[in-house]
Fold:
Amino acid sequence: MTIEPHLIVTGHSPTGDATFVADGRPDPITVGALPGAEFYLMWGTADGTPTVGDNPEPVTRPYFPGVGGSRVIFLRWAPHSHEPEPERDTQQEADEVAEKLPGLLDPFDGEGSMHTTDTVDYAICLEGELVLTLDNDEEVTLRPGTMVVQNGTRHAWENRSDQPALMCYVQIGAKRV
Structure:
């Protein structure tokens, strides 16, 4: 059974009572740079200290939050995402990513899929298998129910299996020391 991301948000009525302010399924965002991947930008908070008691709009841009901000993203990784793709127009793909997922490519250093973010990420595997590789070539395979705390280290994600992998990433913007 494939999980379909679904977002429900609570808030307050004009009289201050608890109520549901949103209930729906977000549309996936796809980009040519990651064929077959589906990004679901579920929710985010502005940088700084989050507030409660109002009915905020989600903040999903830029892709990575600044200090004190947060993002929740479901990302369905295509099978065999680690395999090389045929030659493509990388500038056109970068432009598409910048338009649809601004800031996503900023932490990449041009050496493959390794990247470093100024976030503490709670990465939870919901479906399939995904490999997390660190810059010293250590790796671990995540399976459903596995959670990784990705603590600002240089890393890469790969789906080496024949099935899609669905991850939930909760990103908290942090200050690098």
Observations:
- The first strand starts at residue 7 and ends at 12.
- The chain has one helix and ten strands.
- The helical segments are 90-100.
- The mean pLDDT is 93.
